[in-house]
């Protein structure tokens, strides 16, 4: 069995582990990494565990620091196992699904264009703060049915949450749980839920009058005749706001970084927009916004040839699996025509597969279409002194900033 010291909760190590992960993949499916933890490096082993659905591996034991217990009703989907997970997920998927994403497309186009139009010719801007961060957040806020003018405040709160000790500890110095740690944010979500409830009551049974946003639908969604409790809806809303915001920002940031540093690739994709989906998948595979998924072991088992005991933590290295050479040829290389590009594990796999995958892919496609339509090739140049600096969240990968110079008269008419 391989044993190395590697701390995936340390951003510096987690975000720069590619050579180490390659070596570990060659040695076996899983390696002991210290602190009673195992890191699963190979594709097939990660996928197998992701399919497990709470039989041997538990999501409840994985996400938080050892010993941290979250009350069941406050749990995020990513820390529930079946049958609780199956019930809550069915309710969420009935409200937040492909149909809802298709309905959102015109708003995504409008928002992307509006953010890009604020980038002035001849200026220097940070594409992260002006585009890749606000766009996904505005879209999620709008889909949920919250006022779009609150999006910036929500983004600030969400960033604070993600960068705090709360994701690991379920508390901060201010208090316990989401309500104690972030009382203003918690209160805000509560008020918005009450607002949605009032709108549902006002609409009554009049056909066509029921509010059609995700939160209003969640409040009345029934699975086998049962509704989610207020606390469960609250937790799902937190989940959607937190799950979708920084991750999609990192995807957009990684995509733009790739294009800004590989101008022949940018030229190819602009000339043939049918390559955009392939570029998005390859960005997700090679530069995954989420690097790993932690689970806990509930029964003694083996992963490859490595024995894992009850209570030990298993980190599913989905970023490593995405570069497994037995599944992806020349795995470190971005190939926008790769036939199996969408087989990556960046959105997970199986019963917990990311609920926002379709929204993230759609937002990325539209962001690129609008960027290409607004700025001609070569109009945006990365600051020559720039060097890639990651966001500070330990499980994420994406540029903290992307400073570019905008050509004096960059605008062009029409799309692509
Ligand atoms: C590029 C963007 C995104 C990435 C890389 C990403 C990644 C992930 C990953 C790795 C998981 C765990 C999957 C598993 O355990 O098998 C997950 C779950 C989830 N994601 Fe995303 N996500 C993204 C965007 C979004 C968006 C836009 C939303 C919603 C607005 C969202 C909401 C969720 C939720 C609610 C879950 C929990 C699903 C469950 O446990 O059943 N995500 N995501």
How is the topology of this model organized?
Elements: E1 2-3, H1 11-14, H2 18-27, E2 30-34, E3 37-40, H3 43-50, E4 57-58, H4 84-95, H5 98-117, E5 124-126, H6 127-132, H7 134-144, H8 151-163, H9 166-169, E6 171-172, E7 175-176, H10 177-181, H11 183-203, H12 214-220, E8 222-223, E9 226-227, H13 230-261, H14 263-271, H15 276-286, E10 293-297, E11 301-303, E12 306-308, E13 313-316, H16 318-321, H17 357-374, E14 380-382, E15 403-406
Parallel strand pairs: 1-2, 3-13
Antiparallel strand pairs: 2-3, 4-10, 5-15, 6-7, 8-9, 10-13, 11-12, 14-15
Bound molecules: protoporphyrin IX containing FE.
Protoporphyrin IX containing FE binds next to helix 13 and helix 17.
Q: How do the strands line up in the largest sheet?
A: 1-2-3-13-10-4
Radius of gyration, CA atoms, in whole angstroms: 22 Å
The CATH architecture classification is: Orthogonal Bundle
Spell out which ligands are present: protoporphyrin IX containing FE
- CATH topology: the name is Cytochrome p450
Using the coordinates above, name the CATH class.
Mainly Alpha
Helices, by number, come to 17
How would you sum up the major sheet?
A: 6 strands, mixed
Oligomer: single chain
Please characterize this protein's 3D structure.
Helix 13 (230-261) packs across helix 15 (276-286). The mean pLDDT is 93. With 416 residues, this protein is α+β, with helices and mostly antiparallel strands. It is built from 17 helices and 15 strands. Helix content is 47%, strand content 11%. The chain has a single domain, classed as Cytochrome p450 (Orthogonal Bundle), CATH 1.10.630.10. The longest helix is centred in the middle third of the chain and has 32 residues, at 230-261. It binds protoporphyrin IX containing FE.
């Amino acid at each position: 069995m391989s044993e190395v010291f590697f701390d995936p909760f340390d951003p510096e190590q987690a975000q720069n582990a590619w050579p180490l992960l390659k070596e570990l993949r060659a040695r076996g499916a899983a390696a002991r990494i210290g602190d009673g933890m195992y890191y699963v490096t190979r594709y097939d082993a990660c996928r197998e565990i992701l399919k497990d659905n709470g039989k041997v591996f538990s999501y409840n034991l994985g996400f938080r620091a050892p010993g941290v217990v979250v009350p069941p009703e406050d749990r995020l989907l990513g820390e529930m196992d079946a049958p609780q997970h199956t019930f809550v997920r069915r309710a969420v998927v009935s409200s937040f699904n492909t149909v809802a994403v298709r309905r959102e497309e015109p708003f995504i186009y409008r928002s992307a264009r509006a953010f890009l139009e604020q980038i002035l010719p001849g200026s220097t801007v940070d594409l992260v703060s002006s585009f890749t961060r606000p766009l996904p957040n505005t879209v999620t806020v709008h889909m949920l049915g919250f006022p779009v003018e609150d999006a910036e405040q929500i983004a600030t709160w969400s960033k604070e949450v993600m960068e705090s000790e709360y994701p690991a500890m379920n508390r901060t110095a201010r208090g316990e749980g989401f309500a104690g740690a972030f009382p203003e944010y918690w209160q805000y979500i509560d008020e918005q839920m009450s607002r949605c409830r009032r709108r549902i009551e006002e609409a009554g049974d009049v056909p066509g009058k029921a509010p059609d946003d995700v939160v209003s639908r969640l409040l009345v969604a029934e699975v086998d005749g049962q509704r989610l409790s207020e606390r469960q809806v609250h937790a799902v809303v937190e989940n959607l706001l937190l799950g979708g915001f920084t991750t999609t920002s990192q995807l957009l940031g990684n995509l733009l970084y790739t294009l800004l540093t590989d101008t022949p690739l940018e030229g190819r994709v602009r000339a043939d927009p049918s390559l955009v989906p392939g570029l998005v998948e390859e960005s997700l595979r090679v530069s995954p916004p989420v690097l790993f998924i932690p689970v806990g072991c509930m029964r003694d088992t083996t992963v490859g040839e490595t024995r894992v005991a009850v209570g030990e933590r298993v980190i599913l290295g989905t970023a490593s699996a995405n570069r497994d050479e037995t599944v992806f040829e020349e795995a470190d290389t971005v190939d926008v025509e790769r036939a199996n590009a969408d087989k990556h594990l960046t959105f997970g796999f199986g019963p917990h597969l990311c609920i926002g995958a379709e929204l993230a892919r759609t937002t990325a496609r539209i962001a690129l279409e609008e960027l290409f339509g607004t700025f001609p090739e070569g109009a945006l140049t990365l600051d020559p002194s720039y060097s890639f600096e990651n966001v500070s969240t330990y499980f994420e990968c994406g540029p903290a900033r992307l400073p570019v110079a905008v050509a004096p008269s960059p605008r062009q008419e029409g799309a692509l």
